[in-house]
Every structure is written in structure tokens, then in C-alpha cells.
């Protein structure tokens, strides 16, 4: 991994005004003579803490200014270590410990230091108790053939109420969606992936990517369109509401009109009083889907690992078993995997 600095040149809200989650399109400028990436690759982003969070910490630390830069770039202020928590506990009175228990264990460092301002840490002590700030990965959503000097991302800002009821943001997604300003540079690195388009440019491709899982598939479609590929493309996409979350709608519909995107099946889960997910669309089109697979299509899945990817695989197994009359569908999918015809990029 070779980190480099990339300037943020665009950030655009993709989700609608009524959406409870915020999803952004971001573009970073890169020098195409030095930086190369392939569809399917990811960008590692090294987040920074906001200046206001750092300020709130250093006012409680003796000579805090000396560690301000280090705190901003290298230490996680959001998620705290057990070591820090037990050290803090030892320095608090039993009454203060009881109050902390009531507030909840998932408070950030700035909140804790404000709540328990009677406690003192030296800068060195504090740094030794914090987690390092780790990079996060984001699937690149552009193709370098279409955008030679850009890397584009789609980022969902993680936001949830902590046990204290305070809205808490994901470190890197908040950095990308709020803290970093257009015109600022971020430290990033291109991460090579095995999630790759078929070498055969005419091979058909089935892409299943709800939510931000659409990211690599926009890159695949841009790449295949730029190469004038004759392969067929079938995208299963979905999110909560069509009006709020149909990301890249115009581009997808334009590709459909041009014949680049052969099929687009959409599953908006919350537009009716029962859930519709991508695997429901797969089930509805099971015979056609099996025909594509049987004729050699490559299957790609991207997005949520915990639920979506599991349920999509279950649906695929059913389709292989029922439509293909394959007795051992698990073995069949394993064979597809070994041949690179079933690839997943899930998180
Ligand atoms: C290969 C790969 C590709 C990826 N591509 C993308 C992409 O294209 N777009 C994208 O947006 N993301 C993508 N991700 C996810 C991304 O890397 C980050 O994991 C995500 O942005 C969250 O990071 P964060 O730093 O904002 O959150 P963190 O600070 O890491 O916080 C996340 C943590 O917050 C807590 N949390 C989150 N929600 C709740 C809740 N509701 N209640 C209680 N606690 C909660 C959990 O402890 C969770 O582990 C990808 C991940 C991988 C591995
Ligand atoms: N907590 C946050 O604020 C937050 C924000 C961003 C991302 N994330 C995490 O980041 C990942 C990606 O998030 P995302 O915004 O891209 O989208 P997502 O949360 O994965 O949701 C995308 C779509 O997938 C649907 N879905 C839920 N369960 C599914 C299942 N079992 N099978 C198929 N589809 C299913 C969702 O429906 P329903 O939601 O209607 O069930 C929604 O329509 C997820 O792991 C998510 O938890 C969390």
C-alpha cells in the first residue's frame, strides 16, 4: 500500500432530502501518470479527527497543544480501548463511576473528558491509552478509462444514537462526508482487489449490489461502455426508497437506453408495507437468471456482508437447484467461485 495525497474536487449528496441516511458521491483528483487503478479496486482512506473534537480534548490535557496534531491524525477519539476505560475508572470516584455507567460505555473521548473534567491525563499517558486511527476501505465507483484523473466513491455516512442518545458518527465516513472540505487533500491509497471483470470482454455479467454495493458496478459499466464491450450486463440494485435512494438513476437509465445495461431490476425495500429485496427480484426472474448463469455469466455480489450477501447466496443456491436441476448446488457455486465466475466484495 503506497499512500498519497488526493484533493477532494467534488462532493454531492446522492440521497434525497427526506432520507434518514445520507449517501454522498465524492471525486478525488489524481495524477494519472502516477496513480493507476482497475475496476473493482478500493481506496483506503486515512481519516482525520475534526479540529473541534481535538480542541475539546486538548483543553483537558496539560500542554495539550503539543499532542494536537498527533491526536488529529493518528488516534481514534470515537471508539475507546478497554485499557483507557479501566484507567479512567480507577481515577474516578465511585459516584462518578456510577454516573458513567448510567450515561453508557460508548461515549467518545471529548464527551467523557467534558463529563469528568476532574480527571487529569498527561499527553503521553493519553496517547498510550488510545487506539490508532485505522484506514477504511471504499470500493472505487469510477473507471479510469472514463475518468483518467479521478477516483470516485459512494459513501454512506454512518450515524446512530449512542446509549446517551447523542448522534454518533462513523470516523471515516464522517471525515469524508463532513469534515473534509472540497479543495482539501486526503491521505489515501489504492488497494488492488481480486474482484475483477472477466478477462473475456464478451462474457455476460450479473451484478447484485444494493445500497453502496452499487459502487464497483458503476465502475464495471463505465469500463465496459468505454471498451465498447459486447457483453451483456444485468444489475440488481435496491435501497430503502426509490425517490430517495435511486443512486446514479440517470446514468443507469442512459446505459439502459444505449444497450450497455441489458437488464436493471430494482428492489426498493420500504416503498410498500412489506420488504422487497434484491433476492426477491432474483427469485421472480429465476428462469432467466439461470439461463444467463448456464450460458457462462459471471456473478458479482457487493455490499452488506452480514445479511444481504448471505440471503443472496441462499437465493442463488435455490435457483441453481430448482432451475438448473443441480443436485448439489453448493458444489456448483464452489466450482463457479474457483473459476472466478462467482465473486463477492462484501463488508
Ligand atoms: C472492501 C470494502 C469496500 C467498502 N466499500 C464501501 C463503499 O463503497 N461505501 C461505503 O459507504 N462503505 C464501504 N465500506 C465500508 C467502510 O470501509 C467503512 O466500514 C464504513 O464507512 C464505516 O466506517 P466509519 O469509520 O465511518 O465507521 P466506524 O467509526 O468504524 O464505526 C462503525 C462502528 O460503529 C458502530 N455502529 C455503526 N452503526 C451502529 C448502530 N446503528 N448502532 C450502534 N453502533 C453502530 C459499530 O460498532 C460499527 O462497527 C467498504 C468496506 C470494505 C471492507
Ligand atoms: N447505521 C448506519 O447509519 C449505516 C449507514 C451506512 C451504512 N451502514 C452499514 O454499511 C453497510 C452498507 O449500507 P448501505 O447504506 O449501503 O445499505 P444497506 O444498509 O445495506 O441497505 C441497502 C438495502 O438493502 C436492504 N437490505 C436489508 N437487509 C437485507 C437483506 N437481508 N437482503 C437484501 N437486502 C437487504 C435494505 O433494506 P432495509 O434497510 O429496508 O431492510 C436496503 O434496501 C451496511 O452494513 C450498513 O449496516 C450503516
Features:
3 domains, 347 residues, Rossmann fold, binds flavin-adenine dinucleotide, 13 strands, 14 helices, 36% helix, six-stranded antiparallel sheet, binds NADP nicotinamide-adenine-dinucleotide phosphate, alpha/beta, five-stranded parallel sheet, Elongation Factor Tu (Ef-tu), domain 3
Can you walk me through this structure?
Helix 1 (51-58) runs parallel beside helix 5, helix 11 (278-284) packs parallel to helix 13 (308-322) and helix 13 (308-322) crosses helix 14. The chain contains 14 helices and 13 strands. The relative contact order is 0.14. The strands form 3 sheets. Strands 4-3-8-1-2-5 form a 6-stranded antiparallel sheet, with helices on one face. Strands 11-10-9-12-13 form a 5-stranded parallel sheet, with helices on both faces. A two-stranded antiparallel ribbon has the order 6-7. 36% of the residues lie in helices and 21% in strands. It folds into 3 domains: 4-41 and 136-159 and 166-176 and 184-191, Elongation Factor Tu (Ef-tu), domain 3; 51-129, no CATH class; 205-346, Nucleotide-binding domain of ferredoxin-NADP reductase (FNR) module (Rossmann fold), CATH 3.40.50. With 347 residues, the protein is an alpha/beta fold. The structure holds flavin-adenine dinucleotide and NADP nicotinamide-adenine-dinucleotide phosphate (NAP). NADP nicotinamide-adenine-dinucleotide phosphate (NAP) is lined by residues 21, 156, 158-160, 210-212, 238-240, 269-270, 275, 277-279, 303-304, 307-308, 311.
Amino acid at each position: 500500500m503506497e499512500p498519497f495525497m488526493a484533493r477532494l474536487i467534488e462532493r454531492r449528496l446522492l440521497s434525497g432530502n427526506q432520507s434518514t441516511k445520507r449517501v454522498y458521491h465524492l471525486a478525488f483528483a489524481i495524477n494519472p501518470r502516477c496513480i493507476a487503478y482497475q475496476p473493482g479496486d478500493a481506496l483506503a482512506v486515512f481519516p482525520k479527527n475534526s479540529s473541534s473534537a481535538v480542541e475539546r480534548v486538548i483543553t483537558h490535557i496539560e500542554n495539550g497543544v503539543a499532542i494536537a496534531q498527533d491526536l488529529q491524525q493518528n488516534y481514534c477519539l470515537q471508539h475507546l480501548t478497554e485499557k483507557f476505560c479501566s484507567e479512567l475508572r480507577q481515577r474516578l470516584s465511585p459516584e462518578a463511576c456510577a454516573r458513567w455507567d448510567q450515561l453508557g460505555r460508548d461515549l467518545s473521548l471529548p464527551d467523557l473528558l467534558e463529563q469528568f473534567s476532574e480527571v487529569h491525563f498527561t499527553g503521553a499517558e493519553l496517547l498510550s491509552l488510545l487506539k490508532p486511527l485505522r484506514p477504511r476501505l471504499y470500493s472505487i465507483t469510477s473507471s479510469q478509462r472514463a475518468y483518467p484523473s479521478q477516483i470516485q466513491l459512494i459513501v454512506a455516512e454512518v450515524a446512530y444514537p449512542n446509549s446517551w442518545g447523542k448522534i454518533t458518527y462513523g470516523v471515516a465516513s464522517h471525515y469524508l462526508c463532513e469534515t473534509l472540505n472540497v479543495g482539501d487533500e486526503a491521505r489515501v491509497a489504492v488497494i488492488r482487489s481480486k474482484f475483477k471483470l472477466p478477462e473475456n470482454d464478451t462474457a455476460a455479467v450479473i451484478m447484485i449490489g444494493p445500497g453502496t454495493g452499487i459502487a464497483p458496478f458503476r465502475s464495471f459499466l463505465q469500463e465496459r461502455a468505454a471498451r465498447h464491450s459486447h457483453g451483456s450486463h444485468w444489475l440488481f440494485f435496491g435501497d430503502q426508497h426509490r425517490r430517495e435512494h435511486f443512486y446514479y438513476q440517470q446514468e443507469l437509465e442512459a446505459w439502459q437506453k444505449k444497450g450497455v445495461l441489458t437488464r436493471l431490476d430494482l428492489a426498493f425495500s420500504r416503498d410498500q408495507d412489506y420488504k422487497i429485496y434484491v433476492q426477491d427480484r432474483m427469485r421472480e426472474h429465476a428462469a432467466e437468471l439461470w439461463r444467463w448463469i448456464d450460458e457462462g455469466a459471471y456473478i458479482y455480489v457487493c455490499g452488506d456482508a452480514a445479511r444481504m450477501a448471505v440471503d443472496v447466496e441462499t437465493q442463488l443456491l435455490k435457483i441453481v437447484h430448482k432451475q438448473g436441476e443441480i443436485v448439489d448446488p453448493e458444489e456448483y457455486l464452489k466450482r463457479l467461485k474457483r473459476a472466478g465466475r462467482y465473486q463477492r466484495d462484501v463488508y
